[in-house]
Amino acid sequence: MTINGKGLIAGRQRSGILSMMTLLMLSMITGCSQSNPNQGTIPEQSPQAQATVSTPVAQLGKTKVVTTFLPIYLFTKAVAGNVADVEILVPPGTEVHEYQATPENVKAIATANVLVKNGLGLEGFLENTVKNAQNTKLAEIDASKGIKPLNEISPVVKTAKEEEDHEHAQGNPHVWLDPVLAKQQVTNIRDGLIAADPANKVTYEANAAAYIKELESLNNEFQRTLQKTPSCTFITFHDAFPYLAKRYNLKQVAVVQIPEDQLSPTDVQNAVNAVKKYKVKALFSEPGVDNKLLSSLSKDLKLTLRPLDSLETGETDPQHYFKAMKANLQILETSCK
Ligand SMILES: [Zn+2]
User: Fold this and answer.
1) How much distance in Å is there from the Cα of 201 to the middle of ligand 1?
2) Are 252 and 336 in contact (CB under 8 A)?
3) Would you say domain 17-30+48-150+175-222 falls under CATH 3.40.50.1980?
4) Burial of residue 19, with CB atoms counted within 10 A of its CB: 0-12 exposed, 13-18 middle, 19 or more buried
5) How far away, in angstroms, is 64 Cα from ligand 1 center?
6) Rounded distance from Cα 61 to ligand 1 centre (Å)
7) How far apart are CA 255 and CA 62, in angstroms?
8) What would the pLDDT profile of 190-225 be if each residue is shown by its tens digit?
9) What confidence score (pLDDT) does residue 81 get?
10) Which of 42, 105, 175, 212 has the fewest CB atoms nearer than 10 Å to its CB?
């Protein structure tokens, strides 16, 4: 199986639940997205964003920038505004962790001036794709440059027998979910774009400054709200929130390796024990995920299952980051009460 359910990668391991999620996600969410990423998978997209997503070549000598997946696209688009063409390689609705590059991706990189990635080992498909593109003039921006990755900061509870490990050799990559680290990513993208296209320096600086200001006020809002519920512990099925948890004094317990078909009594007991041990207050799935195993586990654990967004998929307007993060804040506030 090449495509896994969006986001339900448990960070370190692929859990058995993925194949089930895959079926659900493919039928419910991605639908026909594999053949046509511009229809049905990108709701409420602005005409401008739509144009840039599908622009095959640079227009009128504009710098052509390709980005890997949604959050990096959002940050790059925010900085580039209209002075560069920004494209995305992994269409929203397609899982990034196990992404397989397409011939179109190779073409996009072959004709690009700049490539922006999240880094920290997230984009496993990229190295070979870049090699195949043979673009000697390509400038690469690592948005996580200078960010110290975290390893294993969340307790990981395994609910089934351990499978092959696939460790994050370069640490947990989900840095974009911490608004403060997102600021660092935007700054790296700004500096990389200025280096590649100095003629538009003033625009890149102004756009980045405006977006960073919004990130700062988002950070303030998170701080103000979550300081009322210190050490709130939550369970996720995707090890995506350790940076956010660390920033705001929350605690993520990542539960991984839920079996495919059903939970054994031991699985349930392990999860129940984890809830007691860590005094867990909340259980998070992801938006658009409707899974019977998770809802039945939530009943067993007597915890409400709510969606927390990893932003690995969603709308392509740069403002979507704030919309989704504010929704996350509301969910956290409600759950941690
Ligand atoms: Zn992830």
Assistant:
1) 32
2) no
3) yes
4) middle
5) 27
6) 35
7) 45
8) 999 999 999 999 999 999 999 999 999 999 999 999
9) 98
10) 212
10 forms beta bridges with 13
Q: How far is the CA of 300 from the centre of ligand 1 (A)?
A: 26
Q: What is the dihedral of CA 141, 144, 145, 148, to 10 degrees?
A: -170
CA 174 to centroid of ligand 1, rounded, Å: 6
Rounded distance between C-alpha atoms, residue 231 and residue 216, angstroms: 22
185 vs 49, higher pLDDT: 185
Distance (angstroms) between ligand 1 centre and the Cα of 208 equals 25
pLDDT tens digits, one per residue of 85-101: 999 999 999 989 999 99
pLDDT at res. 313? 94
CA 9–ligand 1 middle distance (angstroms): 6
Give the start-to-end residue ranges of the domains of the chain: 17-30+48-150+175-222, 227-336
CB neighbour list of residue 2: distance below 8 Å, 6 or more residues apart = 98, 100
